[in-house]
């Protein structure tokens, strides 16, 4: 539903926002809105957003009042606190309050202070960061690693840094925002292949190479997709890249550290350690910090991106504190304790998937820290998530345009600190909330 209600509510109007207005529409309605006033769309959006908030239907932009542990407290924008069982944080190995990680941060702060005070291409690359790059290179089996301020910055920066306007990008239609935005910023020649469909990627590559033997092709995918929790056949994609003289880039934000032998993620699980052209990743999931990286076999890749990936070159380097946290987390990931944490995580994941399925719910993807549960129609999904909050369950609602229309979902993110009992309780709560939401649907909103 587009901008009707905000237009009717032109400044000064006293008409009460309706429940139907809060239940319908999406952020896409407020993206393009012709007006000489750049802020008019922002006002319309703010009205819709606050209407949703007033009806308790805005489970976004909540703030943590306690650490992102298995139980936490989130404060709504209207000041209400919701305490509950937390499946909305991406601290997969539960390292964010780990004593050794906190101690490493404190030790680094005592030695270095809190700030790196410069881009990594100038004087902001603290010595510990160079050591971290070497440790990551060893972990990934790829000798050249460059750090980025965030995972998003790594995805965007690597693509925009390497792809010129006449080059091509072929990527999975569900690739993350940083990859899609980077690709579109770099070139008009962005070709999306159907999700996980290697044959479709091949057809696109064949056509591109037939028409354009002169320019580069970047083939982009993810280790574990963040909305559907599934993984591509990486060996097949790497072979395709070789055949068509393309460069394969795999974003391992969600699986590295949390899955696979020694925490090597899907690349390790698929027996491809050290064999992917370019790997990018984020530390924000299993490494308890902001930050990202790119890794590859050639020094040329690293040195080029140091100067040509704007999100690294023109942005401040990671702080000494972040570097210490990531490095200590990496040590845990590679240790016996890391193995144990991954086992705990997978047990909780399996328990949750099983319990949700037993409740008759549709669970997507494969066993990974992300457990997507189909909620369906956006109106029902918003009501269901409100009901979950009232029943003390915290999990993220994902709706159009982040996922297709009428395929809204609950994205549950599991941590190694979740127990089988947590999983049972969460599944029962999701089922109860979804059932309650059916009763709450306003008459006008009952049809899909
Ligand atoms: C595949 C993928 N890449 C990159 C990012 C961004 O990572 P960060 O939050 O570290 O910027 C995410 C975030 O969820 C992601 O899912």
Automatic annotation (TrEMBL):
One of its GO terms (molecular function) is transaminase activity. Keywords: Aminotransferase, Transferase. Residues 85-428 form the Aminotransferase class I/classII large domain. Its cofactor is pyridoxal 5'-phosphate. The keyword RNA-binding does not apply. Signal peptide: none annotated. Pfam families: Aminotran_1_2. This is Aminotransferase class I/II-fold pyridoxal phosphate-dependent enzyme. It comes from Ideonella paludis.
């Amino acid at each position: 539903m587009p901008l009707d209600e905000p237009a009717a509510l032109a400044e000064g109007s006293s008409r009460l926002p309706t429940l139907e207005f809060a239940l319908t529409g999406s952020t896409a309605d407020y993206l393009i809105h012709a007006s000489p006033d750049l802020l008019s769309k922002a006002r319309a959006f703010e009205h819709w957003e606050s209407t949703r908030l007033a009806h308790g239907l805005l489970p976004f932009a909540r703030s943590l009042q306690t650490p992102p542990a298995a139980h936490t407290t989130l404060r709504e924008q209207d000041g209400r606190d919701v305490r509950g069982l937390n499946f909305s944080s991406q601290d997969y190995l539960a390292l964010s309050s780990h004593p050794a990680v906190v101690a490493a941060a404190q030790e680094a702060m005592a030695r270095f202070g809190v700030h790196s005070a410069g881009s990594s291409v100038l004087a902001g690359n603290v010595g510990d960061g160079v050591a971290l790059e070497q440790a990551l290179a060893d972990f990934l089996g790829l000798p050249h690693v460059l750090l980025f301020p965030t995972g998003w910055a790594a995805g965007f920066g690597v693509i925009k840094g390497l792809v010129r306007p006449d080059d091509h990008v072929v990527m999975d239609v569900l690739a993350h925002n940083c990859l899609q935005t980077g690709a579109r910023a770099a070139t008009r020649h962005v070709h999306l292949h159907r999700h996980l469909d290697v044959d479709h990627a091949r057809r696109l590559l064949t056509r591109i190479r037939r028409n354009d033997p002169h320019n580069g092709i970047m083939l982009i995918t993810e280790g574990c997709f963040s909305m559907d929790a599934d993984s591509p056949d990486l060996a097949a994609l790497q072979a395709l890249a070789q055949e068509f003289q393309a460069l394969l880039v795999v974003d391992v934000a969600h699986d590295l550290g949390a899955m696979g032998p020694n925490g090597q993620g899907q690349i390790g699980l698929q027996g491809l350690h050290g064999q992917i052209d370019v790997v990018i990743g984020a530390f924000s999931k299993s490494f308890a910090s902001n930050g990202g990286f790119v890794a590859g076999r050639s020094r040329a890749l690293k040195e080029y991106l140091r100067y040509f990936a704007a999100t690294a070159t023109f942005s401040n380097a990671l702080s000494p504190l972040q570097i210490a946290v990531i490095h200590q987390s990496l040590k845990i990931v590679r240790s016996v304790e890391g193995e144990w944490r991954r086992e705990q995580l997978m047990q909780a994941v399996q328990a949750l998937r099983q319990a949700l399925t037993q409740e008759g719910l549709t669970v997507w993807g494969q066993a990974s820290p992300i457990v997507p549960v189909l909620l369906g129609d956006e109106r029902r999904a918003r009501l269901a998530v409100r009901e979950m909050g009232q029943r003390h369950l915290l999990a993220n609602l994902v709706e159009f345009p982040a996922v297709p229309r009428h395929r809204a979902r609950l994205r549950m993110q599991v941590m190694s600190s979740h127990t089988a009992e947590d999983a049972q309780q969460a599944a029962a709560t999701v089922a109860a909330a979804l059932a309650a939401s059916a009763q709450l649907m306003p008459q006008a909103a009952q049809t899909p």
